[in-house]
Every structure is written in structure tokens, then in C-alpha cells.
Design a protein that fits this description.
The chain has 14 helices and 12 strands. By secondary structure, it is an alpha/beta fold.
Length: 357
Amino acid sequence: MLNPSMGRTDATQSSANETQSRKADHLRVCLEDDVEFRETTSGLEAYHFTHTCLPDLNRDEIDISTTFLNKALAAPILISSMTGGTDLAKRINCRLAAIAQQYHLAMGVGSQRVAIENPAVADTFAIRAIAPDALLFANLGAVQLNYRYGIDECIKAVEILEADALILHLNPLQEAVQAKGDTNFRGLLDKIAIVCDTLPVPVIAKEVGNGISAVMADKLIAAGVAAIDVAGAGGTSWAKVEGRRAQDPKQRRLGATFADWGIPTADCITGLRHIAPFTPLIASGGLRNGLDIAKAIALGADLAGLALPFLQAANESETALHTLVDILKAEITTALFCTGTATLAQLKRSDALAKRT
């Protein structure tokens, strides 16, 4: 007779192997293929700053520091959640963590489901020793709460990273396109509320590139999330990524059909700020430079997340990462200088940003 526990162990190992293989595919596809939105943009290009030809400022005294979830940051930059679970992912996460520590930035990691299923790869996420002072976000898919995950797995993800907060990411489109995706999202809001009420660190709700509307944000805030990362359309299309790696022609077609699906990031920011002016807000999705970051801050974001630019730089070299962060900081500072604002708070309060007509 088959040993039931042995069957469960085999199934768990099979799931862990599939998850790890998927992580490797994600890195490969993102680094080698064109997986960005083509028709849908972040919406930030629809806005422009009014130039101030005589700023009453010394550029060297401009301050782009901020705080998020009560932790001081030298710049409003989040190294967005990307990867983990493979040797390449470990190298990338370690390089990113060193940059987060040196420049006092925030950083998230990719979904830690692979480490929950296979503790042997937990060290690919264990970056606290490299970034002892950084603001670090653990990460699990919210849908896993419908697939036998609960508070214990959430706590484990936080413990692996020694994280300051837990991201619960929301990715219905990605799961729909992904082969064998987890698509039972029924009743998740109540389960998210339980995690928010129980977990000893704050919970951040995050999309993965298709956006969070004001209506959905309102429900998530009511459920108890401490912050929201809108992760709008305009950057990496995870429908496109999953379509590219799919073997099934139907899944490939789905990925192509929905490659540009989502709410532009700028619309997510303004919509959320209309209904929740004080909720900590991360803007990500298609941000590619410091000017995009400045626009997101001026629209009401508190932090701006970038993924693909950091992934590409981290894959190249540590030097490339240093160069990227230095450029981003210079671009943010220049935007403040040329709008006559000395701090991020002043930029938010100003009327320097206008929508193009």
C-alpha cells in the first residue's frame, strides 16, 4: 500500500522543483526577451514639469531623503521584488542588497514560495547580513492563502529575510496565463485581513504589473494593509513573460492577447490618492529613470519602485549598479532643482507637475 505521507512528500518535492524551474525561466526570459508593454504605457509621459528658470536654491543642498514605514531612506527608491531560488538569483539578490545597504534604499525580494517549499534555497533570499540597515520586504503570493498557506508560512517568509514588512502580491492575470497557475482567488480579502491582523510586521499589497484601482485599494486598506504598491501597467508584462515560457499554444495565445492589459501606473497613483490621501504608497510599473520617479512622487507616491533596470544592472556587474543608482539620484535631484523645490515634501505640495493638453 502506498504510504500517504510519502505521496505528499513526493508531491511537495515535485511542486518545489516546478517552482524553482519557473524562477529560472522568469530570470532568463526577463533578461533575454522583450517582455515590456508595447501599447499601454505607465501614463507618466502624459505629465510634464513646469521649468523654473531661476530656482532660489543651491543644488548641493537639495534633500531627496524620505521615510517609509518609519524607516529613514536616503532616496525614494525601492529595488522592486524580482527573484530568488536559484544560484543566479542569489548572486543578483546579494548584489542588490549591497547596493540597498550602501545607498540606504528599500528592497524587496521575489516570491519566497520556492523557499517555503524547498528550504534548501532559503539562503538565496537571506540577505539581511549584507543589508543590516536596509528596509527589506519579504514576499508571498496572496493566492497561496487559498492553497494551504497561512500565517505560519507568512511568518516563515519574514523570518528568512528578517524583513521589515511582508508583501502579499496579487497576480490574477499572471496566474491565468501561467501553465498550471493558481487561479482560485475566491475569498482572499478575508484571508488577507487575517494576515494583516496577525502578522507582527506590516503587510503591503502589491500587484505585479497590471495595477490596483481605487476601488480595490479601498477594499485592501479596509482589510488592514499598511501600504500599497500599485505596480501599474507600462513596464514588464508578466502575461508576456508567462506566454513566452509556455509550451501550450493556448497559454501562449493568452499571453499575447493580454500582453498590454492593465491600469497605467499614473492612473493608479491619482486614483488611490483620491480615496486614500494618507496611505503609504509605492509607485511602480514602467518607471525607468529619475524623472519618472520625480513625477510619481509629485502625483502622490511616497516611494518609487524599479525592477527591470536593477535586474539588468545587477546581472551585468556591481559597477553597473552603482552607476544606475548614482544616475537615478542625480535625475531626481535635477527634477527638484529645475522645479524650484528643495525636498520631496515640497515637490508633492507644489503645482509644478501638470498634465499635457
